[in-house]
Design brief:
The protein is mainly β. It is 2% helix and 37% strand. The strands form 3 sheets. Strands 1, 2, 4, 9, 10, 11, 12 and 14 form an 8-stranded antiparallel β-sheet that branches. It has a 6-stranded antiparallel β-sheet with strand order 3-13-5-6-7-8. A two-stranded antiparallel sheet has the order 15-16. The protein is globular and about 45 Å long.
């Protein structure tokens, strides 16, 4: 469990814009039913060096327009980047996403082919190597694009080489037609209230 010497990230409730829902110690995030605006959720802790891994479980996917990934400090400092038509992970040049409907990767509002699509019940894997500025995505135990997060500077199968010198925050974005939800596992060992 969280304690002063072992602190886990959660979704940041201070980045709470209209119709967002936080639960289970801010490890479950979503939108209320009927909300059709884009919403980007980011974590409480950002990183600028080191190697990190976290997971998200897609719950109640009522749309296929969601994304998971990372956004930089510069992106999340402007509330306009987190909601509305430009609120997706990957809409900005310092934001990098993996797209549910297509499996594409996206940055600077431009998509290209990468991996498989994902939907309700899928567990998404994210590895961020800030020592080599590489970002990887996986699904249900398989790294997309034959990725190898242990490949170091070669970045085998990485989705992106992220801009160096910035602090990045884990993120997901939703357009909530009927109350779509994600559950984060930042190392606390649970999806919602279910141990993993």
């Amino acid at each position: 469990e969280d304690n002063p010497s072992n602190v886990f990230a959660t979704a940041n409730p201070l980045n709470n814009y209209t119709s967002q829902v936080f639960a289970n110690g801010n490890t479950t995030v979503g939108t209320t039913s009927g909300n059709t605006s884009h919403k980007q959720f980011v974590s409480t802790l950002g990183v600028s060096s080191g190697k990190y891994y976290w997971e998200l479980k897609n719950i109640d996917a009522t749309t296929t327009d969601s994304r998971v990934g990372v956004s930089s400090e510069n992106v999340i400092s402007n509330p306009a980047n987190l909601t509305g038509s430009g609120g997706h992970v990957g809409d900005d040049p310092q934001s990098y996403g993996y797209v549910a409907s297509s499996g594409n990767k996206e940055t600077n509002d431009s998509q290209s082919s990468y991996g498989n699509s994902f939907t309700s019940g899928d567990i998404l894997m994210v590895a961020l190597d800030m020592d080599n500025n590489k970002l990887y995505f996986g699904k249900n135990g398989t790294w997309q694009n034959s990725g190898d997060p242990t490949s170091g500077s070669t970045g085998t199968g990485s989705a992106f080489t992220v801009t160096s010198g910035l602090t990045y925050f884990p993120a997901c974005s939703i357009i909530g037609g009927g109350g779509e939800t994600y559950q984060f596992n930042f190392g606390n060992g649970y999806f919602g209230t279910t141990a993993v």
